[in-house]
Amino acid sequence: MNRILKIGTRDSELAVWQATLVQNQLAAHNIQSELVYIKSDGDIDLVTPLYEIGVQGVFTKTLDAALLSGRIDLAVHSMKDVPTGLAKGIVQAAVLQRASYIDILVHKGEWHKQNGEWTINNPTAVIATSSIRRKAQWLNRFPEHRIENLRGNVNTRLQKVADSNWSGAIFAAAGLERIEKRPANSFELNWMLPAAAQGAIMIVCREEAADTKEACALLNHADTALCTRLERDFLRTLMGGCSTPISALAQIQNNTLLFRGNIFSLDGKQMLETQVELPADTAPDILANTGNKAALELLGKGADKIVEAIRHAGY
Length: 315
Prior knowledge:
single chain, 315 residues, alpha/beta, D-Maltodextrin-Binding Protein, domain 2, Double Stranded RNA Binding Domain, five-stranded mixed β-sheet, 25% strand, EC 2.5.1.61, Porphobilinogen_deaminase_C
Protein backbone atom coordinates (compact mmCIF):
# COMPACT_ATOMS: atom_id res chain seq x y z
CA MET A 1 0.00 0.00 0.00
CA ASN A 2 1.45 3.34 -1.10
CA ARG A 3 -0.81 5.73 0.83
CA ILE A 4 -0.89 6.54 4.54
CA LEU A 5 -4.01 5.16 6.23
CA LYS A 6 -5.91 7.54 8.50
CA ILE A 7 -6.99 5.83 11.73
CA GLY A 8 -9.96 7.43 13.49
CA THR A 9 -10.07 7.23 17.27
CA ARG A 10 -11.70 8.87 20.26
CA ASP A 11 -9.25 11.05 22.15
CA SER A 12 -9.41 9.31 25.54
CA GLU A 13 -6.21 7.72 26.83
CA LEU A 14 -7.60 4.20 26.41
CA ALA A 15 -8.94 4.82 22.90
CA VAL A 16 -5.63 6.31 21.79
CA TRP A 17 -3.77 3.32 23.28
CA GLN A 18 -5.98 0.97 21.26
CA ALA A 19 -5.56 2.96 18.04
CA THR A 20 -1.80 3.09 18.57
CA LEU A 21 -1.77 -0.69 18.97
CA VAL A 22 -3.45 -0.97 15.56
CA GLN A 23 -0.98 1.55 14.11
CA ASN A 24 1.97 -0.47 15.43
CA GLN A 25 0.58 -3.74 14.12
CA LEU A 26 0.07 -2.20 10.68
CA ALA A 27 3.63 -0.87 10.79
CA ALA A 28 4.85 -4.41 11.43
CA HIS A 29 3.42 -5.20 7.99
CA ASN A 30 5.10 -2.10 6.48
CA ILE A 31 1.81 -0.20 6.27
CA GLN A 32 2.03 3.47 7.24
CA SER A 33 -0.76 5.20 9.15
CA GLU A 34 -1.58 8.27 11.23
CA LEU A 35 -4.09 8.90 14.02
CA VAL A 36 -7.05 11.28 13.64
CA TYR A 37 -8.66 12.28 16.95
CA ILE A 38 -12.46 12.60 17.07
CA LYS A 39 -14.65 13.31 20.10
CA SER A 40 -17.79 11.17 20.36
CA ASP A 41 -21.18 12.08 21.83
CA GLY A 42 -20.44 9.72 24.70
CA ASP A 43 -17.26 11.66 25.51
CA ILE A 44 -19.00 15.06 25.47
CA ASP A 45 -21.86 14.25 27.89
CA LEU A 46 -20.19 12.70 30.94
CA VAL A 47 -23.12 13.10 33.33
CA THR A 48 -26.25 11.56 31.79
CA PRO A 49 -26.55 7.79 32.30
CA LEU A 50 -25.77 5.95 29.06
CA TYR A 51 -29.24 4.42 28.82
CA GLU A 52 -30.79 7.91 28.89
CA ILE A 53 -28.75 9.30 26.00
CA GLY A 54 -29.38 6.29 23.74
CA VAL A 55 -26.35 4.09 24.23
CA GLN A 56 -26.65 2.42 20.81
CA GLY A 57 -23.66 3.81 18.96
CA VAL A 58 -23.02 6.65 21.41
CA PHE A 59 -19.26 6.05 21.16
CA THR A 60 -19.22 5.16 17.44
CA LYS A 61 -21.62 7.42 15.50
CA THR A 62 -19.22 10.34 15.12
CA LEU A 63 -16.46 8.04 13.90
CA ASP A 64 -18.95 6.40 11.52
CA ALA A 65 -19.71 9.80 10.01
CA ALA A 66 -16.00 10.59 9.59
CA LEU A 67 -15.49 7.20 7.95
CA LEU A 68 -18.34 7.57 5.49
CA SER A 69 -17.29 11.11 4.58
CA GLY A 70 -13.76 9.94 3.79
CA ARG A 71 -12.12 11.92 6.59
CA ILE A 72 -10.64 8.68 7.93
CA ASP A 73 -9.94 5.26 6.36
CA LEU A 74 -10.62 3.07 9.37
CA ALA A 75 -11.87 3.40 12.93
CA VAL A 76 -10.80 1.55 16.07
CA HIS A 77 -13.36 0.70 18.77
CA SER A 78 -13.73 -1.21 22.00
CA MET A 79 -15.85 -3.92 20.42
CA LYS A 80 -18.38 -4.04 23.25
CA ASP A 81 -19.34 -0.42 22.42
CA VAL A 82 -20.16 -1.21 18.78
CA PRO A 83 -23.84 -1.79 17.91
CA THR A 84 -24.56 -5.30 16.61
CA GLY A 85 -25.88 -3.74 13.42
CA LEU A 86 -23.17 -1.63 11.75
CA ALA A 87 -24.07 1.54 9.86
CA LYS A 88 -24.81 1.07 6.16
CA GLY A 89 -21.60 1.20 4.16
CA ILE A 90 -19.39 0.19 7.09
CA VAL A 91 -18.01 -3.31 7.66
CA GLN A 92 -15.95 -5.16 10.24
CA ALA A 93 -12.41 -5.28 8.89
CA ALA A 94 -10.63 -7.10 11.74
CA VAL A 95 -10.84 -8.14 15.38
CA LEU A 96 -7.60 -8.12 17.36
CA GLN A 97 -6.71 -10.88 19.81
CA ARG A 98 -8.78 -10.48 22.93
CA ALA A 99 -7.36 -9.23 26.23
CA SER A 100 -9.04 -9.90 29.59
CA TYR A 101 -12.85 -10.11 29.46
CA ILE A 102 -13.15 -9.89 33.27
CA ASP A 103 -14.95 -7.17 35.25
CA ILE A 104 -13.22 -5.96 38.41
CA LEU A 105 -14.25 -4.02 41.50
CA VAL A 106 -12.09 -1.06 42.53
CA HIS A 107 -12.92 -0.75 46.22
CA LYS A 108 -12.37 1.48 49.24
CA GLY A 109 -11.02 -1.07 51.72
CA GLU A 110 -14.28 -2.39 53.21
CA TRP A 111 -14.01 -5.68 51.37
CA HIS A 112 -12.31 -8.80 52.72
CA LYS A 113 -12.02 -12.47 51.81
CA GLN A 114 -14.15 -14.99 53.64
CA ASN A 115 -14.06 -18.70 52.68
CA GLY A 116 -12.25 -17.71 49.49
CA GLU A 117 -14.92 -15.16 48.45
CA TRP A 118 -14.73 -11.37 48.61
CA THR A 119 -17.41 -9.99 50.89
CA ILE A 120 -18.41 -6.81 52.71
CA ASN A 121 -20.06 -6.39 56.11
CA ASN A 122 -21.99 -3.30 55.01
CA PRO A 123 -25.39 -4.60 53.73
CA THR A 124 -26.32 -1.20 52.25
CA ALA A 125 -23.06 -0.54 50.44
CA VAL A 126 -23.04 1.83 47.45
CA ILE A 127 -21.52 0.52 44.21
CA ALA A 128 -20.98 2.69 41.11
CA THR A 129 -21.46 1.73 37.47
CA SER A 130 -23.22 3.11 34.40
CA SER A 131 -23.77 -0.39 32.99
CA ILE A 132 -27.28 -1.86 33.16
CA ARG A 133 -25.74 -5.33 32.77
CA ARG A 134 -23.36 -4.88 35.71
CA LYS A 135 -26.09 -3.32 37.83
CA ALA A 136 -28.48 -6.25 37.29
CA GLN A 137 -25.86 -8.90 38.02
CA TRP A 138 -24.70 -7.02 41.11
CA LEU A 139 -28.24 -6.63 42.51
CA ASN A 140 -28.88 -10.32 41.88
CA ARG A 141 -25.95 -11.12 44.20
CA PHE A 142 -26.25 -8.15 46.58
CA PRO A 143 -29.94 -7.09 46.51
CA GLU A 144 -29.61 -4.64 49.42
CA HIS A 145 -26.83 -2.60 47.84
CA ARG A 146 -27.48 0.74 46.12
CA ILE A 147 -26.14 1.52 42.64
CA GLU A 148 -24.86 4.98 41.65
CA ASN A 149 -24.23 6.20 38.12
CA LEU A 150 -20.57 6.51 37.07
CA ARG A 151 -19.61 8.13 33.75
CA GLY A 152 -16.43 9.49 32.19
CA ASN A 153 -13.20 8.11 30.79
CA VAL A 154 -11.11 5.68 32.82
CA ASN A 155 -9.06 8.34 34.61
CA THR A 156 -12.15 10.42 35.43
CA ARG A 157 -13.98 7.42 36.84
CA LEU A 158 -11.02 6.35 38.96
CA GLN A 159 -10.81 9.86 40.40
CA LYS A 160 -14.55 9.87 41.15
CA VAL A 161 -14.15 6.62 43.06
CA ALA A 162 -11.26 8.08 45.08
CA ASP A 163 -13.27 11.24 45.88
CA SER A 164 -16.52 9.45 46.76
CA ASN A 165 -17.88 7.60 49.77
CA TRP A 166 -18.79 4.62 47.60
CA SER A 167 -17.77 1.12 48.64
CA GLY A 168 -16.50 0.44 45.14
CA ALA A 169 -17.01 0.79 41.40
CA ILE A 170 -17.00 -1.75 38.58
CA PHE A 171 -14.53 -1.49 35.68
CA ALA A 172 -13.44 -3.68 32.78
CA ALA A 173 -10.05 -5.14 33.64
CA ALA A 174 -8.80 -4.77 30.05
CA GLY A 175 -9.32 -1.02 30.00
CA LEU A 176 -7.36 -0.39 33.20
CA GLU A 177 -4.64 -2.92 32.43
CA ARG A 178 -4.00 -1.62 28.91
CA ILE A 179 -3.07 1.82 30.20
CA GLU A 180 -1.46 0.43 33.36
CA LYS A 181 -3.98 2.08 35.68
CA ARG A 182 -5.40 -0.92 37.52
CA PRO A 183 -5.22 -0.07 41.24
CA ALA A 184 -3.88 -2.46 43.86
CA ASN A 185 -7.21 -2.11 45.69
CA SER A 186 -9.16 -4.14 43.12
CA PHE A 187 -10.26 -7.73 42.65
CA GLU A 188 -11.79 -9.78 39.84
CA LEU A 189 -15.53 -10.47 39.74
CA ASN A 190 -15.20 -14.01 38.41
CA TRP A 191 -18.92 -14.63 38.90
CA MET A 192 -19.94 -11.72 36.63
CA LEU A 193 -20.41 -12.69 32.99
CA PRO A 194 -19.07 -9.95 30.66
CA ALA A 195 -20.67 -7.88 27.95
CA ALA A 196 -20.60 -9.40 24.48
CA ALA A 197 -17.12 -8.83 22.98
CA GLN A 198 -15.69 -7.28 26.16
CA GLY A 199 -11.90 -7.10 26.00
CA ALA A 200 -11.79 -7.21 22.19
CA ILE A 201 -10.83 -4.41 19.77
CA MET A 202 -12.66 -4.03 16.45
CA ILE A 203 -11.47 -2.25 13.32
CA VAL A 204 -14.11 -1.03 10.86
CA CYS A 205 -13.76 0.54 7.43
CA ARG A 206 -15.84 1.51 4.39
CA GLU A 207 -17.39 -1.44 2.61
CA GLU A 208 -15.98 -0.50 -0.78
CA ALA A 209 -12.41 0.14 0.47
CA ALA A 210 -10.85 -3.11 -0.73
CA ASP A 211 -7.24 -2.08 -0.05
CA THR A 212 -8.05 -1.00 3.53
CA LYS A 213 -9.92 -4.24 4.21
CA GLU A 214 -6.97 -6.20 2.85
CA ALA A 215 -4.54 -4.32 5.11
CA CYS A 216 -6.70 -4.75 8.22
CA ALA A 217 -7.27 -8.44 7.54
CA LEU A 218 -3.59 -8.98 8.33
CA LEU A 219 -4.38 -8.12 11.97
CA ASN A 220 -7.46 -10.33 12.36
CA HIS A 221 -7.38 -13.00 15.11
CA ALA A 222 -9.64 -15.80 13.88
CA ASP A 223 -10.60 -17.33 17.26
CA THR A 224 -11.44 -13.94 18.77
CA ALA A 225 -13.42 -12.97 15.67
CA LEU A 226 -15.46 -16.18 15.91
CA CYS A 227 -16.10 -15.95 19.65
CA THR A 228 -17.13 -12.29 19.56
CA ARG A 229 -19.40 -12.99 16.59
CA LEU A 230 -21.24 -15.68 18.58
CA GLU A 231 -21.58 -13.36 21.57
CA ARG A 232 -22.93 -10.50 19.44
CA ASP A 233 -25.33 -12.90 17.66
CA PHE A 234 -26.66 -13.88 21.09
CA LEU A 235 -27.13 -10.23 22.06
CA ARG A 236 -28.79 -9.28 18.77
CA THR A 237 -31.18 -12.25 18.75
CA LEU A 238 -32.31 -11.58 22.32
CA MET A 239 -32.80 -7.84 21.95
CA GLY A 240 -30.14 -6.12 19.87
CA GLY A 241 -29.14 -3.37 22.29
CA CYS A 242 -26.04 -3.03 24.43
CA SER A 243 -27.76 -1.07 27.24
CA THR A 244 -29.42 -4.26 28.42
CA PRO A 245 -28.68 -6.78 31.17
CA ILE A 246 -27.51 -9.39 28.66
CA SER A 247 -24.10 -11.08 28.94
CA ALA A 248 -22.25 -13.55 26.77
CA LEU A 249 -18.86 -15.25 26.65
CA ALA A 250 -17.50 -17.71 24.09
CA GLN A 251 -14.09 -19.32 24.58
CA ILE A 252 -12.07 -21.86 22.60
CA GLN A 253 -9.85 -23.95 24.84
CA ASN A 254 -8.44 -27.46 24.41
CA ASN A 255 -10.17 -27.76 21.02
CA THR A 256 -13.54 -27.06 22.66
CA LEU A 257 -15.92 -24.13 22.22
CA LEU A 258 -17.65 -23.15 25.46
CA PHE A 259 -20.46 -20.60 25.18
CA ARG A 260 -22.22 -19.06 28.18
CA GLY A 261 -24.95 -16.46 28.13
CA ASN A 262 -27.56 -14.93 30.41
CA ILE A 263 -30.23 -12.27 30.70
CA PHE A 264 -31.44 -10.53 33.87
CA SER A 265 -34.41 -8.38 34.72
CA LEU A 266 -33.44 -4.77 35.41
CA ASP A 267 -33.66 -5.27 39.19
CA GLY A 268 -31.61 -8.45 39.03
CA LYS A 269 -34.35 -10.60 40.53
CA GLN A 270 -35.00 -12.70 37.43
CA MET A 271 -32.27 -14.54 35.57
CA LEU A 272 -32.12 -17.03 32.74
CA GLU A 273 -28.85 -18.62 31.61
CA THR A 274 -27.56 -21.05 29.05
CA GLN A 275 -24.38 -22.98 28.37
CA VAL A 276 -23.27 -24.78 25.20
CA GLU A 277 -20.18 -26.93 24.72
CA LEU A 278 -19.07 -28.13 21.28
CA PRO A 279 -15.89 -29.54 19.73
CA ALA A 280 -14.09 -26.66 18.03
CA ASP A 281 -13.91 -28.71 14.82
CA THR A 282 -17.71 -28.92 14.61
CA ALA A 283 -19.05 -28.12 11.14
CA PRO A 284 -18.59 -24.34 10.56
CA ASP A 285 -22.28 -23.68 9.86
CA ILE A 286 -23.31 -25.35 13.14
CA LEU A 287 -20.57 -23.59 15.10
CA ALA A 288 -21.50 -20.21 13.61
CA ASN A 289 -25.11 -20.61 14.75
CA THR A 290 -24.22 -21.21 18.42
CA GLY A 291 -24.98 -17.71 19.71
CA ASN A 292 -28.25 -17.42 17.83
CA LYS A 293 -29.38 -20.89 18.93
CA ALA A 294 -28.52 -20.15 22.58
CA ALA A 295 -30.59 -16.96 22.46
CA LEU A 296 -33.57 -18.78 20.94
CA GLU A 297 -33.31 -21.33 23.76
CA LEU A 298 -33.64 -18.56 26.36
CA LEU A 299 -36.49 -16.91 24.46
CA GLY A 300 -38.28 -20.26 24.62
CA LYS A 301 -37.76 -20.31 28.39
CA GLY A 302 -39.36 -16.90 28.93
CA ALA A 303 -36.62 -14.42 28.10
CA ASP A 304 -39.09 -12.69 25.78
CA LYS A 305 -41.06 -11.55 28.84
CA ILE A 306 -37.91 -10.09 30.42
CA VAL A 307 -37.07 -8.36 27.13
CA GLU A 308 -40.57 -6.90 26.88
CA ALA A 309 -40.34 -5.51 30.42
CA ILE A 310 -36.98 -3.91 29.58
CA ARG A 311 -38.47 -2.28 26.47
CA HIS A 312 -41.44 -0.95 28.44
CA ALA A 313 -38.98 0.58 30.91
CA GLY A 314 -37.48 2.56 28.02
CA TYR A 315 -34.13 0.78 27.58
